[in-house]
Amino acid sequence: MAKQKLKTNKAMAKRVKVTAGGKILRRKIALNHLRRNKSPQAIRSMDKMFELKPADTRRIKRLLPYAF
């Protein structure tokens, strides 16, 4: 009897990007919320992709079983 396939969590798949080397990239939060009060430097820094902390990668690997 074959095991069931695991489901990918679609919400997390849309929020993160997995590189070829296995790193998980994320965007910063609160980019569009109250944007006119933020400085241009803050907006530019939020626009970039950042690597996820190692403590969170185990949980993400469970949500995205076929991304690695």
- Unreliable residue runs: none
Q: Would you count the extended β strands for me?
A: 3
Radius of gyration (CA) equals 16 Å
Strand arrangement within the widest β-sheet reads 1-2-3
- Helix count, per DSSP? 3
Task: Write the element-wise H/E pattern from the N-terminal end onward.
Answer: HEEHEH
Overall geometry? elongated
- CATH class equals Few Secondary Structures
End-to-end separation: 25 Å
Strand content: 5-15%
Structural commentary:
Belongs to the bacterial ribosomal protein bL35 family. It holds the Pfam family Ribosomal_L35p. GO terms for molecular function: structural constituent of ribosome. This protein has 68 residues and is α+β, with helices and mostly antiparallel strands. The chain has a single domain (10-63), classed as Irregular (Factor Xa Inhibitor), CATH 4.10.410.60. It has helices at 10-15, 40-46, 54-63, and strands at residues 16-18, 24-27, 49-51. The longest helix is centred in the last third of the chain and has 10 residues, at 54-63.
Describe the protein's topology:
Elements: H1 10-15, E1 16-18, E2 24-27, H2 40-46, E3 49-51, H3 54-63
Antiparallel strand pairs: 1-2, 2-3
